[in-house]
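F.,

This is the one I mentioned.
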């Protein structure tokens, strides 16, 4: 069973189940790395309840990393439902399975928004707050994506 990775012309090398949406790109932009924004090849998979992402210097390497996470995720599932979960710094109901360590959505009741100060991530500042400064940062980085340093080897 061969599948084309959505948004690419590349065939997936691993046997992803039909119901798991997969997408990728050769030139993703990542914000908030230790040295600022960087570009990377990336591969993302969306099994029910979670979102897995691998990064690498090539799309194939990124898919390999994502596939490894998927194997961890499904192996944990095979021993019964995921959990127990811990919230870490998520207040929106998402948390991490303490057995496989994978992030999952909708595993807790969301906490009230004012439950304490926290630094909002760039993605929240753009899509939730519509903060003009955050939007400017994104537009600038995307416009100059080809000039960003290559990253992704460390993940
Ligand atoms: Zn798990």
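My design for it:
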């Amino acid at each position: 069973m061969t599948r084309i990775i959505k948004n690419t012309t590349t065939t997936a090398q691993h046997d992803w189940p039909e119901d798991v949406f997969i997408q990728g790109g050769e030139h993703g932009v990542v914000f908030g790395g230790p040295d600022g924004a960087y570009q990377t090849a990336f591969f993302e998979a969306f099994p029910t309840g979670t979102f897995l992402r691998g990064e690498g210097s090539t799309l194939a390497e990124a898919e390999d990393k994502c596939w490894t996470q998927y194997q961890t995720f499904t192996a944990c599932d095979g021993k019964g439902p995921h959990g127990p979960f811990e919230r870490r710094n998520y207040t929106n109901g998402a948390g991490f399975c303490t057995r496989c360590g994978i992030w999952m959505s909708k595993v807790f009741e969301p906490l009230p928004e004012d439950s304490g100060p926290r630094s909002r991530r760039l993605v929240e500042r753009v899509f939730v707050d519509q903060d003009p400064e955050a939007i400017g940062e994104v537009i600038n980085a995307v416009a100059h994506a080809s000039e960003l340093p290559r990253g992704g080897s460390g993940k």
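The helical segments are 59-77, 122-127, 132-143.

Talk soon.
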